[in-house]
TrEMBL record:
Residue span, C-type lectin domain: 26-145
PANTHER family: C-TYPE LECTIN DOMAIN FAMILY 4 MEMBER M-LIKE, TETRANECTIN-RELATED
Cleaved signal peptide residues: 1-23
Pfam families: Lectin_C
UniProt keyword Nucleotidyltransferase, yes or no: no
MF-aspect GO terms: carbohydrate binding
Protein name: C-type lectin domain-containing protein
Amino acid sequence: MVKIEVNLILFAYLSLFIISVCANKYVVSNQRVTFHEAHSRCRQYGLDPAEILSESDEKEIEQALLPIKDLGTFDGFWIFASKLADKKNYYWLNSNLPLFYSAFYQGQPDNTGEKEHCLELYQASTGVFKWNDNSCDIKNRFICQRKQKINSCDDNRSAVL
């Protein structure tokens, strides 16, 4: 019972924090969870799972990630496309759109061991971000996005959970 109350208090605090962070488009989590847990958490926070549909989306997410002080090379963040539905093609989970823009690292996606069905964005080198396919069971941080873009604050477009 105490654990449920603590979780509810934590959820309420995080929800209030998210609501109070002006109108940032992207919310970057410090939590490390599986792909499916990350998707659920975005929804629990009242956000959409992050989708990168264009180069401008990619640049905005990269700008949101740059201020993270403990971001190392190969630190991954779930972006919400997978090929779990048909094992051949990636689709964004929120919009159901296929990938028509991508920024995969050279040689990716490679589906190592035929177990890599979910996409991550990671820092390939300082300030350079690329996409990779990975096992959906790996625990990564994740990126959510606001349901609509509101321009009522400054130009900062990131927040941290």
